[in-house]
Design goal:
Blueprint lengths: L1 E3 L22 H6 L13 E5 L6 H15 L7 E4 L5 H12 L4 E5 L12 H12 L6 E6 L2 E4 L3 E3 L8 E3 L6 E4 L2 E4 L24 E5 L7 H9 L3 E6 L7 H12 L3 E6 L21 H14 L1
Amino acid sequence: MGTGGTIAGTAASSSDGVGYTAAQLRVEDLMAAVPGLAGRQIEAQQVAQLDSKDMDFGTWQVLAQAVQSALDRPEVRGVVVTHGTDTLEETAYFLHRVLAPAKPVVLTAAMRPATALAPDGPQNLFDAVQVVATPGARGVMFAFAGRVHDAVQVRKTHSYRVDAFESVDGALVARVEEGHVRQLSRWPTGVPLGLDQVSAPVARWPWVEIVLNDAGADGSVVRALTAAGVRGIVAAGTGNGTLSARLDVALREAQAQGVRVVRSTRCDAGPVMDLPGLLPTAGALSPVKARVEMILGLLQA
């Protein structure tokens, strides 16, 4: 299933790795560029065609429904989703929480456009198919640069490198080596929320924002969001989810007015500890994944 992204991007010159336009090629074109997929029993479906910085709730709904419909077919082994890297970790976590599939759903992407001198998309796409074809594979994963991450762990940690993603606590699911999948840990599992939980019209999805704790954070953004009707706030705190005194006061005021509040961390890795007297923690979820979790929680409320 194609959704666009850099993997489907093109540029006027093969030497241009940043001035490209994302989401230009269809998923059939991406498959045709991978000789190792010739003759495989693979269906192609274009679910969306966008730069993933523009990913939205409506596309998430359509994608989740399309993936579930495919997985419900007994002859389907699993699903590969091509995606842009910018919001991939959020889409992966969303699919993990909503579907938690018993079959593999493997997202993949690229840091270089399809027209680059050495595009990384074809290898990543081939690897993703190899993961789907692995006996016993299940759950939502991300195949990229020879490594397989689970949806909860994966984060984009570099703006440009072709190995731009990490499993933040080092818990890789597998490696793909010359087309062979070497499993390193258990396939990801979870308890599915189900598509009914996200079937509401997009206009009714709860408004949740991320607020950063940084030098001089005084809580004015929190008060403005609260006055505007925000339903939830994820505080991307410093270190172990720490907050400036004034930001903490503003978040507690928002909480008292019915706004849901959790603390995450702006650090690349590590959980936020749950300590007495502090605002609730998002655990080991990054701010963007904590936002997805809060949105899903508010949809169920």
